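Late entry, written up from scratch paper. The run itself happened at the end of the previous shift, but nothing got recorded in the book at the time, so transcribing now.
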Amino acid sequence: MKINEELEITNKIKIRSTGIALILYPLFAGFAFASHPNLLSLAVNQPIAEKISEFHGNNLMHFGHLLMALGVPALIVISIHFMNLLKNEKPLLSLIGNALACFGAFILALDKSALCFVPSAFDTLLAVEYDGIIPGIYAMFNYRGYLGILKLLPLLPIGFIILGIGLVSTKVINKKTSIFILIGSLLMCNPDIDIIGLIATLFLGIGFIPYGLHLIIKGK
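Output as recorded:
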């Protein structure tokens, strides 16, 4: 009896933790996108000099990227939860979607570490010192060396698109919720345009947050 009670408590903790993850990620990601200057710009392949002018000395933007990185564990928890929901009806699709989403989340953590946390450290330098490392910053944003692995970041939304298709087709959760999650995931597949990323996060939030609250309140 005691073991069954412990298992029930553990299961409720897991479910409610998943609910918290579903709420936190869109809030963190939404703040990160909203903190970008020139948010309404639809420019693709922004010149690196403009990127430097945006993030240099921009503590709000650095903090937003920190939140985005902190949201990576939440993304992994959410992806695994969706995989478990789908594993009986869509075993192969759920496995592939989760694998791509989790690997993409890992790439997101690398992306924020390399291209966001490191520039925030550069901001602590004197102006003369900062000017001397600008060629290095150009090398970073041109994905030189092993930074080329960051080009695999689209695997994250692709994984969630696959999971979203599974959610919509199986109806293991509310269909409207599934549709919002799928739309948000599709919009995340964009050429790094911040306003589209923010809109995508809003769609994800509309899907994630009510579902997360449901898991927290109901515990199932």
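The CA atoms of residues 26 and 201 lie 6 Å apart.
(Scratch paper discarded after transcription.)
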